Amino acid sequence: MTHRIARRALPALGLAAAGAARAQAGWSPTRPVTIIVPFPPGGSTDVTARLVAEKMAPLLGQNVVIDNKPGAQTVIGAEAAARAAPDGHTLLMSSGTTLTINPLIGRNLPYRPEDFAPVVHVATLPFCIAVKPGIPDTIAGYVAHVRANPGKVTWGHNGRGSFNHIAGALIADRIGLDWQDVGYRGDAPQLNDLLAGTLDSILVGGATGLAAARSGRARIIGWTGETRLPNLPDQPTFAESYPGLVAVTWFGLLAPARTPPAAVARLNAAGAAATADATVKERLLNEGILAAGGTPADFQAFLSREAERWGPLLRRLDIQLN
Known about the structure:
Elements: E1 2-5, H1 14-22, E2 33-37, H2 44-60, E3 64-68, H3 75-82, E4 90-95, H4 96-105, E5 116-131, H5 139-148, E6 154-157, H6 163-175, E7 180-183, H7 187-196, E8 201-205, H8 206-214, E9 219-223, H9 238-241, E10 248-256, H10 261-276, H11 278-285, E11 290-291, H12 296-317
Parallel strand pairs: 2-3, 2-4, 6-7, 6-8
Antiparallel strand pairs: 1-3, 4-10, 5-8, 5-9, 5-10, 5-11
Helix pairs in contact: 1-10, 2-10, 4-12
């Protein structure tokens, strides 16, 4: 599914952002830039990509196209991006599943992290656990309830090997929980089952968890970020009860390997300016997403740290994608 993002007036991004883009004027796109999103429309990755694309378009002087290519735990979209021409006109909006988790657990991936050139770290996304009525809606109460009902309390995730499945494995390993995981093909069906009362809890990204809570038929018990979200100061983190228990996925733009450095620099300038835009930051925060930014080198260093962080856990738990 492809949607075009209309160009917006350049002054809306401010003179500083415009100057940043002009500073990288050694390369310019000659046609619309496509951002491949390896998830269906409507999820956190898609929402983030559309917000960023809308702000990048005027800085690049071209429309920015969102191309949703979901499937196989993001492998389909990632492979398409890796095989695209390295000319700066195709980007991947990766999540942590794509380039942190999959390379660590996928034995036969059709792509490698080395197939991509980091452009900009767009955002980070903590997970939350939301529960249906009748399930304790505090972290301590939920943990006690799961322990009192071993193997019976259900929790939904996006399928084996997804980042929220891995986050759940981390929580279970750290706290010592015996719960029943139920895999879904995306956030929407598990949210529907939670609201219908056929699923006890879900471990999802902020946008879905907040949608559950706003429905009035579910409650968020806690978040997996390092600190509380600034717009939700009354909702605790698991790290407050279990120090170091942090599970945060991420979103970032990458180009195919061998994309010219000048193109990467220009795309980074536009992407970093988009993530720094006050409107974008506010809209992301309302979805439980925290804007990031920085240089391609910053993003590469972040990716290396994530691999080092999750590798030992995944090897110990022997979680495999295929």
